[in-house]
Each structure stands twice: as C-alpha cells, then as structure tokens.
Amino acid sequence: MPAPTARSDHDVTSPNAHRLPPGQYEARGWPVLHFGHAPAVDERTQTIRGWGAVENPTAWTIAEFKQLPTTTVRSDFHCVTKWSMFDNDWFGVASRTALAALRPTAEASHVMLHGAEGYTTNVPLDAMLDDDVIFTWRRDGEDITVEHGWPLRLVLPKRYAWKSCKWVTGIEVMTADRRGFWEERGYHNDAFPETEQRYSYQE
Fold first, then answer.
1. How high is the pLDDT of residue 8?
2. Is the dihedral of CA 168, 174, 177, 179 positive or negative?
3. In the chain, how many domains are there?
4. Which of the residues in the chain have pLDDT under 50?
5. Which of 76, 93, 95, 184 has a 20 to 30 A CA-CA distance from 69?
6. DSSP string, 9-67
7. What's the CATH number where 137 sits?
8. What per-residue confidence (pLDDT) applies to 2?
9. Which domain holds residue 53?
C-alpha cells in the first residue's frame, strides 16, 4: 500500500536535474511527510535503546546520546513520493559511532530502527556502517522540527527516505532480516532510488 503522498512546488529547470534519480523532482523547501501525526516528544525523558545481537546493550538519554562524538555529513535526500533535496548538511552522531558503542556480534547482519508510536524500518548492517549515515538533530545549521523527526532521526542517504527513521527510540541489531512498518505494507525491502525500488512487487 503506498504511503500518503505530498506535493511540493518544484523547478523542472533546476541545475540539479542531472543529479535526480529516475522519477524524482527537486523540491523547494523540505516537504513534511509521515504516517499519522507527529508525536509529542519530551527530550528530557526520551531514551534511545540499543539491544539485540550486541555485546554492550545500552540505553541513552537524548542528552547522553548527544555526548557521543559528532560530525557533519553533506548528502542528498530522496523520498519515495518522488521529491528530492540536494546538499543537506546534517549534524549529529554517525551511525557507525553509535553502533561501535553497542559492539554488534559477529552474527549481526541487519538493524531494525524503532521510532515513536511503533514505527520500524529495516536496514542491512553494512548499510548502517556507511560513512554518510547519521543520527541527526540539525540540518543546515538549524535544529530540525518535530515534524521532521526532532529530537533525533536517522538519515540514510542512499535509500528512500522512509528508511530514515524519525523520532528514533531504538536500534535493534539482528542476526536475520525482518521487514519494518512500510516494508510489510508493500514497500520495497531495499529502497534504492537509483533503480526506483519503490514497491515490493519489484523484488
């Protein structure tokens, strides 16, 4: 089942047109798109739990998570509803930094990201270890809004944006793949924009 769609004004004459994956257009601004309503999140009580196939299960408060080494990553961002944004500067904690703290076991192969109100999305462990994957709370020098996933969201630039979990509450390291929320509802398990892996019937 397709996700709710969002429309945004776009410029077909954009100088970035040659960078667009197939079927995408460049958005003006940052469209808001998610299932349901943005949750009421209290940064003081929110926790980020890491568990599963790890040697060091951990539960961080948001403040503790933000004390991990930080970095800035510049990357593009592609939504399955066909809009793209280019050259975003994300500030936060590299995914591989957080995973290094958890110490995945030798059997670990996948990660399930958990978000507020039961959202989940699955990602191969090696994809989470790419150097452009980041748990972020700032974009282009400003805190992201609750609608965009504050106080913490994942950005996984090489996959469609439903893999970039908003309102992260958990990092579950797994020894086998398991489909997440949209993957169980008809979206592609891999989600590569360059080959338009939008829906599960394409697998």
1. 40
2. negative
3. 1
4. 1-11
5. 76
6. -B-TT-TTGGGPPTT-EEBSS-----SSPPP---TTT-EEEEEESBSS-EEEEHHHHTT
7. 3.90.420.10
8. 42
9. 21-28+45-202
- 133 part of a folded domain: yes
Spatial neighbors of 18 by CB under 8 A, at least 6 apart, are none
- DSSP-derived 3-state class of residue 70: coil
What pLDDT, on a 0 to 100 scale, did the predictor assign at position 5?
Answer: 40
Residue 4 lies in a domain: no
Q: For residue 4, what are its two tokens? A: 């709710």
Q: What percent of the residues of the chain are helix, what percent strand, and what percent coil, each to the nearest 5?
A: 20, 35, 50
Q: What is the DSSP letter of 182?
A: T
Instruction: Read off the pLDDT of residues 27-45 as tens digits, 9 standing for 90 and up.
Output: 988 988 777 778 888 888 8
pTM, to two decimals: 0.91
Nearest to 167 by CA among 187, 148, 194: 148
Strand partners, 142: 139
CB 46 within 8 A of CB 169: yes
Collapse the DSSP code of 146 into the 3-class scheme (helix H, G, I; strand E, B; otherwise coil) and give the result.
Answer: helix
Sort strands 83-94 and 25-26 into parallel, antiparallel or unpaired. Answer: parallel
145: in domain: yes
Q: What is the pLDDT of residue 13?
A: 57
For 185, list phi and psi in degrees, rounded to 5. Answer: -110, 25
